[in-house]
Amino acid sequence: MDANAWNSSRLNREREQLFGLQKVFAWVATGLIACGFVFVVLLLLNNRALTRTHEQLRRKDRALQTQYNWFEAAVNNMSQGLCLTDGDRRLLVSNKQFLNLFSLYEGANWQGQALEKILPASMLPVAVDVSTADPLGVYVAETPYRRTHRLDDGTVLFVSHEPMASGGWVSTFEDITERQNAQDRIAHMAHHDGLTGLPNRLLFWQHTENALHELRDAGNPFAVLYLDVDRFKEVNDTLGHPTGDALLRAIADRLASTVTSPDVIARLSGDEFAILHLPGSELFSSTQALAERVLKAISRPYLVGHTEIQITTSIGIAFGPQDGSDSDELIKKADLALYRAKEPGRQ
Questions:
Q1: Out of 3.40.605.10, 3.30.450.20, 3.90.330.10, 3.30.390.80, which CATH number does the structure's domain 81-175 have?
Q2: Which superfamily is assigned to 192-341 in CATH?
Q3: Domains 81-175 and 192-341 share a fold
Q4: CB 121 within 8 A of CB 114
Q5: Confidence band (pLDDT; 50, 70, 90) for 15?
Q6: Angstrom distance (rounded) from CA 82 to CA 87
Q7: Tell me: the pLDDT tens digits for 126-162?
Q8: Contact 126/135 with Cβ under 8 angstroms?
Q9: Could you report the per-residue pLDDT of 271-310, keeping only the tens digit for each?
């Protein structure tokens, strides 16, 4: 083979190799372009998915913010004070009513403050000692707390501490001052005379029962003094019921200034009063001295309006336990003694 033929063959091989490389490069370039296209498509799809996810997150965030605003509005417009504390009784969350009830500045950051620095000790939730665990090993770390508490300014709060499973407490504070005052007024009316404000027959009976219990437990004797205003009916008939009522109030004031604690004064009915005398010692001499003071005090003249009124009283006395072992019997015996003490002709 001559040189020209050899060269021609070599050129053909090199040309074929070059065409092969061109084909490979073309396939590689085509593959790269296809991969780039797929990558761009995937990137676009991913961006679209991210945009959609971001929009969903923004919608959820707006929904959560709306729910938080609703929750905050509901909590801050509650009539009850509310706070949330952790297991160490540190304040986590509180509403405006809670801050107002305890005169706390709203602009201050109370989060993390120890609850004992804000509330009286008697209002704090109580943790139970783990030594109270039952035999199965179930530890009751905290117990519910519900009770009424009166603040120094007279506000009455119903306090509730509910333990959370994760530790800490949800606490509410309800202002029940008006309700409690109404209940106190009703209870006072049920046990006190409306005209004089003195204990009535029911409350006097209860005090006498308590004295009998003390007598049985500690051996402390006592006396029941039954009083009746002499000729009070004449005052009512001649001067009128308003004057009679004013006179009864004046008599109640005289008795209150004459009788000292722990003795109890009561208006039983009409012009009848009673005294539960608890001397502690020297029962008979002390009772006699008290009766003399009462007789002297009641007999001083009264000025009712522009009218001076002079009255007296009669007293019947019964001693516990000599004259009876129950309240009804003692009061009845004192009433009988009063009947015998009244002079003929008095009313």
A1: 3.30.450.20
A2: Reverse transcriptase/Diguanylate cyclase domain (3.30.70.270)
A3: no
A4: no
A5: confident
A6: 16
A7: 764 444 444 444 434 455 778 899 988 889 999 999 9
A8: no
A9: 999 999 999 788 999 999 999 999 999 999 999 988 999 9
pTM: 0.65
Position 244 scores a pLDDT of: 95
Residue 1 pLDDT greater than 70, yes or no:
no
